[in-house]
Amino acid sequence: MGHDPTRAGAEKTPGRLRLPLGSPLQILLLVCSFALAGYAGVRLFAGDWLGVALWLVGAALLHDLVLLPLYAGADRALVGGLGALGHRDLAMYVRVPAALSLLLLVVWFPLISGMVSEERYRSATGLSSAGLLTRWLVVTAVLFGGSAVLLAVRGRRTRSRDGD
Fold first, then answer.
1. What whole-number distance in Å separates Cα of residue 137 and Cα of residue 105?
2. Residue 66 backbone phi and psi in degrees, to 5
């Protein structure tokens, strides 16, 4: 075993914290993302800091206490059902489009459900909120259709490889 003089000092000094640092570019990107997040936080909390803080705490609680058990249970049922059929490896073809579709639903739920008035949305964006439910359903169908196409391509490649 060779002697590495750069590591010898770090191993002998107890209590000294040694951080694994990445490349200078990674460190620069990390510092920039923290600066951007800090700037966004300052701008966000400048207006209604109590409302924003309550919203963040409420969103975290809603996710951890309600949504996480729901989608973890749905995923467990999906994997169990596909596992019983012997096709557990197909779970990602359902997980990905379902996750993206549900993320879009959560983001746009106030508009889709009518919780935000048309006038308020139009004054903020200059756009109409009419047809958002239809658009979400179309995007969901496209996501699942794309996943089905990928699954078919995978199946065709597997069959052609096995047939050769």
1. 10
2. -120, -60
Q: Which residues contact 21 (CB under 8 A, 6 or more apart)?
A: 27
Query: What is the distance between the alpha carbons of residues 82 and 88, in angstroms, rounded to a whole number?
Result: 5
Q: Is 132 exposed, middle or buried (0-12, 13-18, 19+ CB in 10 A)?
A: middle
Secondary structure of 33-86 in the HEC alphabet? HHHHHHHHHHHHHHCCHHHHHHHHHHHHHHHHHHHHHHHHHHHHHHHHHHHHCC
Dihedral sign for Cα 19, 25, 28, 32, please. negative
In angstroms, the CA 111 to CA 129 distance is: 7
Instruction: Look up residue 126 and give its DSSP letter.
Output: S
DSSP string, 106-123: HHHHHHHTT-S-HHHHHH
Residue 92 host element (H or E): helix 92-112
Q: What is the mean pLDDT of each run of 10 residues along the chain (164 residues)?
A: 52 62 85 90 80 84 91 92 89 93 90 82 83 93 97 85 68
